[in-house]
Amino acid sequence: MKKNPFRPPSLTQALEETLEEVRSQKKSNQAEVLIIKRTIFVNRFSENQLTQSTWEENSHLGLRVIKGKKIGFASSNQLSKKAIHQTIEKSLSIMEMAPPLDDFVSLPKEKNLKGNFCFSDPALLEFKPALLSSLLNKVFEAAEREKIKVSGSITQEITELGVANTLGIQKTAVFTEFYGNLITEKNGNSGFESFTTRQINQVDLLKIYHQASQRLEIEGVPQAVSPGEYEVVLSPEATAELIDFLSYLGFSALALQEGRSFVKLGEKMVSSLITLWDDGNNPNGMPFPFDFEGITRQKVNLIEKGVVRGVVYDSYTAYREKKQSTGHALPYPSSTGPLPLNLFLKPGTVKEEDLISSTKKGIYINRFFYVNPMDPLKTIITGLTRDGTYLIEKGKLTRPLKNLRFTQSILEALSCVEGIAQEVKIKKPLVAYCAVPAIKLKKFKFTGVSEI
Amino acid sequence: MKELLYLALDELSFLKASYGEARLVEIEEESIKVKNGVLESITSSQTKGIGIRAFIENYSGFAGTANLSPKKVKEAARLALAIAQAKKTAGTKALPFQPPEKKSGNFKTNFVIDPFEVSLNQKVNLLTQASRLIQKNKLVKLVQASLKFSRTKKTFLNLLGSEINQTFLVSGGEIFCLAIKNNEMQKRSYPAAHGGNNRQAGYEFIEELDFLGEAERLNEEIMALLKAPDCPAKETTVVIGSNQMALQVHESVGHPLELDRLFSLEVSLAGRSFVKPEMVGNFQYASPLVNIEASALVPGGLGTFAYDDEGTPGQRYLLIEEGWLKDFLSSCETAPLLNLSSRGAARAESWNRIPIVRMTNINLLPGEKSFEEIISEVKDGIYLETNRSWSIDDQRINFQFGVEWAQEIKKGKLGKVFKNASYTGITPLFWKNCTAVGNKNSSILWGLLNCGKGDPMQIMMVGHQTPVARFEKVEIGKRK
After folding, report:
1. Which of A187, A338, A383, B261 pairs with B154 at a CA distance of 20 to 30 A?
2. What residue spans of B109-210 are helical by DSSP H?
3. DSSP secondary structure string, A35-79?
4. In the Cβ-directed half-sphere of A284, how many Cα atoms lie within 13 Å?
5. pLDDT for A2 beyond 50
6. Which of B62, B265, B389 sits opposite A373 (nearest CB)?
7. Which of A54, A72, A75 sits opposite B45 (nearest CB)?
8. Pick from B84, B420, B455: CB nearest A44
């Protein structure tokens, strides 16, 4: 992956032309334009057969115009001169009638006004349906040999993103991404592995398949265990789901300002083994160097040794507190406010196997499913386990279990961390890319079993 | 722009596609949000594009483009066919696709007042006034009021000569408040949470919702919730309000009866279903009081259309009759797996997505009893209303719902309020314990905007006409 300057001419020109036309109308004081062009090729497969293959190219033009404290916004997926003109006219007409937003100060500005970034793999810039079919066929052949059914999807994505404002910010970037998931099934037992990367040669689909199927040989028909509190070992996939939800529920400055965040800055809220930060520039994650307002992403320490240290800001929430944006704006408008998108959980020093072997009786969870918050202030969420839930007895995975429902406060779960593994994997559960290891928790509350 | 669709089909025909279809979709949306009595955002968006599905024998490929130049549309047609060819070459097993019969037709939503013609000032003023009526209480930390309108024009053509033009107008709104006291946060929404209520209708539907008239009630109820005790944990009789019944039907009947799930085509994301094809006609899903239909013909429903996105006419039929499983939701790609014809439930979020099996309007047909009669027959139970959270497993067996509002029922009367109420169950066991279904007067047509399925994800609008209903032996509250 090269971090060479790259200037997609189509976006730069469209950004400049849009702002120029807005300026020429002399109706607004400030303006911001965001353009995203995305091409996606998705291949879905089910039980060793390729079932759906879809390709799309789409665009987004979002224009925010400001006069004093009045804001107008319009968007389109068309980038023709006519469409840009219509979008400008619409946003200006909305701005004219909009009542003022009293605590709005300004669009953002920073020292690094311009930048062109490239996080793309040339091999992913071209779509080759036959090549992807043949890669998948190798997985299907292996699965057939091993009498395993494999389902899932893989996606190839190219994104060009540009943002500019009338205060001088102009940033563009090109990203490629290759991501997917494999579900393996044999004898009523199932496994799961997901991956996400910017470079196709960092992924070996056969290796992902073997990781997804590594525990299918644990014998026995999945059994039910009684609901209650158990010691648990969470795979990186399951850990990512907890961390992502925790972040979504509390680490936005807007959530804190509105009183709907659990965050109490400076207070120890989880185990001292937990250190969590957001870093959009870390090459070990999925780098994305600026936010949707064009502001450079800052590294933000969210939790240090169990103590909550920070939340993330966009320009609106930062100006409210006379602070600087940390570079975490989402595309305007966003009711959730800014959010961390590149989370890192500090790894430990042991292997995932050690977390299991040190457990006398507990449950291994490979993945959570259909998780939703029940009480955001208390970080209580509910959901189910899926594709790889095992009983741990005397340090070993002894039998597969039927899926379990959990109802659990994330803060309480992370307050009883027993161990953290050293191997980190990048996952993307719902909102953020999460670079996380497996963890072991002393207590986790299961409230039901999925069985008829 | 219809000529672009012909261009795409001509290209498919020239390249000897076995079958092909092209859809032009143009969507105009307007969204207004007021937060704490102040305008947060007005957004206007316009999107359009063409989606092309091409077949070589039964192997299909799909390409969609927002670039509506003739060159790009032809390229997309060729790419759709190349994807189909790649699947055929890979030797994968194709689904037995059965194209719909040739059809031509039109559909337009009936409405009185075009919401796009109503001034933004009028809409902002309505939301601001309603929001300020609730915000007068200091414990209320957040009030959000919103309106959303969309107009979707679809033109569908296929190689059989079908031509279908449909225009859908959707109007909807929501107001909710959050109040916090002693680290306890409560939420109350009207007319429902997660996007409110939405109809294929004009601005007259917003006027019907009467935000100003309902604001005072929300204010009283959010305060009652802050003072209320936690919902007890026990097994009891529950009476479930119309809005929560909509989600109950959606998650535990609609999704499990989508035929693609039964044939493992949704494993990578949403999962399968505990229901098997052979259960039709001999599986008791629910008590004899329960009749559930799939209908694309409900006036105002978000799942209402003349033709689905494969060109199959919209239909009305029973999924569950007197408790017994009768049918499924299906498409041209899935119905042939059972040697059946499509039930007209193939829907695509927009031009850039393929049609997959989706709900239309899934409705619990009304019973005989009024809400008051249903409550009066309960000695000891609980009334549950307005969804707050939801979760169900990948087979659609184990569900858990949280609700905003709960009230004790004692000796046939509604009593004290409980906060943080939730209930959980196992789908067929729960439905078999249904002991009353409310009459027409207790039934409301709900329009949900946010049903997610597919990969890439497709967000679909669906409808549910649901009355109040009663269930026995339901586990409520947080298990200790």
Report:
1. B261
2. 120-135, 204-209
3. EEEEEEEEEEEETTEEEEEEEEEEEEEEEEEEETTEEEEEEES--
4. 12
5. no
6. B389
7. A75
8. B455
Choose among A94, A137, A183: nearest Cβ to B120: A94
In a domain, A221, yes or no: no
For residues B255 and B197, membership in a common domain is answered with: no
Pick the closest to residue B96 from A22, A278, A49 (CA basis): A49
Triad B401, B406, B407: Cα angle to 5°: 150
DSSP letter assigned to residue A155: E
pLDDT tens-digit readout, A174-203: 999 999 999 999 998 999 999 999 988 889
By Cβ distance, the residue of A44, A94, A383 closest to B268 is A44
Helix, strand, coil percentages for chain B (3-state, nearest 5): 25, 40, 35
User: Are residues A115 and A254 both part of a single domain?
Assistant: no
Query: Partners of A52 in the beta sheet?
Result: A44
Range of A150's domain?
Answer: 9-213
Contacts of A386 in chain B (CB under 8 A): 271, 393-394
**Could you give the CA distance from residue A155 to residue A38 in angstroms, rounded to a whole number?**
12
% of chain A beyond a pLDDT of 90 = 89
> Is residue A416 within 8 Å of A410, Cβ to Cβ?
no
**B470: its two tokens:** 């009663």
What would the two tokens of residue A190 be? 């199932």
With CB atoms and an 8 Å threshold, state whether B93 touches A49: yes
Nearest chain B Cα distance for residue A135, angstroms = 10
Residues from chain A contacting residue B142 (CB–CB below 8 Å): 258-260
Domain with B375 in it: 234-476
Please give the pLDDT value at position A8.
52
Tokens of B48: 């359009």
Mutation to test the B interface, candidates A262, A374, A386, A409, most B Cβ within 10 Å? A374
Residue of A48, A58, A73 best to disrupt the B interface, most CBs of B under 10 A: A58
Q: How far apart are CA B424 and CA A389, in angstroms?
A: 21
Q: Taking a C-beta distance cutoff of 8 angstroms, is the pair B27, B167 a contact?
A: no
pLDDT in tens, B408-444: 999 999 999 999 999 999 999 999 999 999 999 999 9
Residue B42: list chain A partners with CB under 8 A.
Answer: 72-73, 94, 98
Between B136 and B157, the higher pLDDT residue: B157
Please give the residue of chain A at the shortest CA–CA distance from B146: A335
Contacts with A376 (C-beta within 8 Å, 6 or more apart), sequence order: A249, A250, A260, A261, A262, B185
Looking at the domain assignment, is residue A3 inside a domain?
no
Total number of domains in chain B:
2
Residues of B in contact with A72 (CB under 8 A): 42
What is the average pLDDT across B77-81?
97
Structure tokens at A16: 């400049």
Domain assignment of residue A223, yes or no: no
The complex's ipTM works out to 0.93
Q: Count of CB atoms within 10 A of residue A158's CB?
A: 20
Test B93 with A97 for CB contact under 8 angstroms: no
Cross-chain Cβ contact A407/B478 below 8 Å? yes
